[in-house]
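Check this.
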Amino acid sequence: MDGFIFQPGIWEGEGTISFSMAADRLPFNMRWTVQPESDGKLCFNQVVEVEDFTENMQNHFSVTDVKPESFVIQLENHLVGKVEGKGVLSSDVLAWEFRENEQGFEGFEIYEKIEGGYRMRAEFTAGEGLRTFVHGTIKKVSA
């Protein structure tokens, strides 16, 4: 399978994050730890460090029901609980989306292959229509 979530190892990235309620773009760093497949399930963790935020965001993902062009993805963190979404993949793009859950969370992430890694963008809404916008890049740093 193509796409970084199917390649065990450490992936690191950087970019900017902004919010609909503020004009500032804050720098962030992220680190993905992708585990080898086990029992038909892929698991990976993501830690996001945003400048001027004291607490890091910890996201835990699992991927199941992988088909040549699609998969099921689950996200879990302390803000939204567990949400399940659908993913798609092609030779150049990996993407997934989450539809609204009880907490009012929905959003998408798109990863496009570039030389040496991926360019990413994401957008999320939680609750009262407040939106988060993310732009960045990631690359593999170790197997």
